[in-house]
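Hi there, hope your week has been kind to you so far. No rush at all, and the record is pasted right below.
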Amino acid sequence: MSRIGKMPVAIPPKVKVEIKGQKVFIEGPKGKLDVELPHRTSIKQDGNHLIVSRDGDDDQAKALHGLSRALVHNMQVLRKRFPGIESRIFHVQFSNTLRVIILV
């Protein structure tokens, strides 16, 4: 497993998480965020933790695994540091280079 990807993401108190397929919605007292995970990854809620898993064991699957976990974790960090922010990660492109566009 990816070292980053295998770490669970802790869900703070008073935060609601909803998972619909590849899309993750996080809503808390300071606002809400959502992200669509890349293909070949999946996410499940286990109590007060989110666990990201991957489909396959090749290099691309491993990279997407760590990326997906980092995207979900960063939504938590944005919530804590910038209380009024409403942002949406709307485009992730993975090829030879990685490009993530965040609309704030």
Observations:
- The mean pLDDT is 76.
- Strands lie at 9-10, 16-20, 23-28, 31-36, 41-46, 49-54, 88-94, 98-103.
- The chain has one domain: 9-103.
- The helical segments are 59-81.
